[in-house]
Write a structure and sequence with these properties.
The protein is of the alpha/beta class. The protein has ten helices and ten strands.
């Protein structure tokens, strides 16, 4: 069963067309990586799914066609989006950011926040620190933690390793792997760091100039040297 099915997706910014008929599936409980060089259309694909950029095509979530999409509606449907650049509130503390992340919850957040702190112990240590003073890796962890407080069935991650040192990237991806295995959350991750994403993913799709050029099991794509050199840059 597919949690997300994207069919013939086109997207543009004004007169500039970015995506040209992209189609892919995100399997239930799996990690799917959307890869490609800068300008390939990866971030635009996530924005189109969330309804924040003009697009056409069909988006299905658990078999339901979503004709009207917006960030608010997608959140209510259980889709959490961690955008490029992290999107935390820099003037608020870590704890305040987490409480804002769970604003739509009707139950008590305290237990869930404690669970988040168990997953991200560094955030517990910095719970009273303002988010703007955190390191890049800590801000990324905070952004992911905020998204998890929505209890998403689908987590969309846009360039989670951007600007991070390799050791911090490894930490972030290790936590994502642990979370996916313990919670069974379906994850769609957009990455330029193909090596890191392929280690985490079950399947991967490669975009080039707004078109899908390749898709398959992540292990096969990672093992194909010609694919890595031609499309993934390593």
């Amino acid at each position: 069963m597919s949690t997300l099915r994207v069919t013939d997706l086109h997207a543009s910014y004004g007169p500039m067309k970015v995506l040209h008929g992209v189609s892919f599936n995100v399997g239930d409980g799996q990690v799917t990586a959307l890869l490609g060089p800068n300008g390939a259309g990866k971030t635009t694909a996530l924005r189109a799914i969330c309804g924040t950029v003009r697009s056409s095509g069909t988006i299905e979530l658990d078999g339901e066609v979503l004709a009207q999409r917006s960030a608010t509606r997608m959140a209510r449907l259980g889709v959490a989006h961690v955008p490029e650049g992290r999107g935390t509130f820099g003037e608020f503390t870590v704890l305040e950011n987490l409480r804002l992340g769970g604003y739509s919850r009707k139950d008590s957040l305290d237990e869930s926040i404690e669970q988040v702190f168990d997953w991200f112990p560094r955030l517990r240590e910095r719970m009273t620190q303002v988010a703007g003073s955190l390191s890049g890796g800590e801000q990324q962890m905070l952004a992911i933690a905020r998204a998890l407080l929505l209890r998403p069935r689908l987590l969309l991650l846009d360039e989670p390793s951007q600007g991070l040192a390799p050791t911090v990237t490894a930490d972030v991806y290790r936590i994502l792997r642990d979370l996916q295995q313990s919670l069974g959350t379906t994850i769609l991750v957009v990455e330029q760091n193909a090596r890191a994403a392929l280690r985490l993913a079950d399947q991967a799709f490669v975009l080039e100039s707004g078109r899908l050029v390749l898709g398959g099991p992540a292990s096969e794509i990672a093992a194909d040297e010609s694919v890595r050199r031609s499309y993934l840059g390593y």
